Amino acid sequence: GVLSGFYPLLRRQIIGREENISSSFYALNIISDTENLENAIYKVIRLEKDLIEFEITTSNRRIVKTYQFAEEAPYTFDMAISIEGDSKNLYLTSGVPEVELTSGKYSPTLKMRTYRKQKNVVDQLALPKSITTVSSIYPDWICNSNGFLGLIIDPLDEIPPGYRTKYIAGNTLPTRLTLIDPQYKLYPADKYPGYEMFLPLKASNKKTNFRIFSGPFAKDILKAVDATYSNAITGYNPEYIGAKSFHGFFAFISEPFGKLMFSLMQLFHRTTHSWGVSIILLTLVLRIMLYPLNAWTIKSQMKMQEFAPKMKELQKRYANNPQKQKMEMMKLYKTKGSNPLMGCFPLFIQLPFLFGMFDLLKSTFELRGAVFIPGWINNLTAPDVVFSWSMPIPFIGTSFHVLPLIMGAVMFLQSKFMAKKPQKDGPLTDQEKQQKMLTLFMPIIFTIIFYKMPSGLNIYYLFFSLFGILQQWIMNKQQKKNLIKT
Fold first, then answer.
1. pLDDT tens-place string over residues 318-362
2. Which of 179, 203, 227, 467 has the CB geometry, 3.0–4.6 Å to 287, for a possible disulfide?
3. Total domains in the fold of the chain
4. 232 & 345 share domain
5. Interatomic CA distance for residues 199 and 139, integer angstroms
6. Could you list the residue range(s) of the whole structural domain that residue 162 is in?
7. Which pTM value belongs to this model?
């Protein structure tokens, strides 16, 4: 099954589910620790073109909430709250973002900006396992997101110190993904818990003002909002761009590479208007940048081919003494100024860029849902789909992805193209055995790893391999010319 229509920012009531969800999970609701305030019914007391005001009156308090659109900034509106009477243990809720999956991964993120050590600092908070209450910190703003979309609550007036975070079981507030082929339990509710943040409120007849950003965490959008509310005279900048996260297990390594790569992609996108083509052009630029290092590696491999007969001679001479054979081989490598491990060097130097691209696809809203080839590659942040079915198959899942197979085939051709041909007589040298194993197993391993990876990552590595074949062909041609001259 496929979900149609719009995709909500926040989790909400699922049609057909008998149990109603608590309104304490709604965004910008006011809840209390001591009474069931979240289910109270507000009434509209004021309605204008760009403004709406709600009121609720209980036995011990009166609350007025006012919402007003902020025309000057995208995805932003103003909210004001006034509380007359008892305000103890009152909190403003962030709501619970809906699940977003990239390569099957769910990346909920809680953040907060505070002022400490003479500067503003944005911290990513640990996801709570139950309820966590902090009372000694004054948050400048808080953020609750699913990686691509989220909500920022920015108090513009003084509020009590502290904040609260809460774990919400997936069965209590199920994601909309549970509606996809529920008979096969592709997305079990308990696998996708939710998280909510709360800010304390104070009693004041005067309004407490908040600025709310509710939308995509796209770099250009967040920068535009920051620019709108920044003040050059006072030096104030809300720094909502800090709400954007770079997701990845090795993010501390891949983030600089990912940011560089996306800057180049944005440059190409201004001309091509296609993120898919931008990825291809990016791989070309990276191949050109890495050309000297790759060329050095290829030359080293070619150099090793020149003394292959000597290596075979050593193998025959010390066939009964493996330790002596290895020692003589190492002497030979040292004499010739070569290294048998140089064949792995091209893979190592491209790993930071590979991780950068993978994490970029998980963290960049601009690439979310980007179509490259309609009907086949409909989302660069998800696997390509040629056809699909309902019942999941182990490892394969519910859809057939052809890009990883093409990528694996091209990688195999590249390995065969780069590997030197063994001599017809005699046993294989250690280097030839290593190349034979790499040629056979690396494409298979990468195909398995990449099978459920985003199509954008498969496109990147596919063309990286194709351009690698082109570079090898150029180097081989140059070598032949040099041999003819000599």
1. 777 777 777 777 776 667 566 655 556 666 777 889 889 988 998
2. 467
3. 2
4. no
5. 9
6. 23-243
7. 0.83
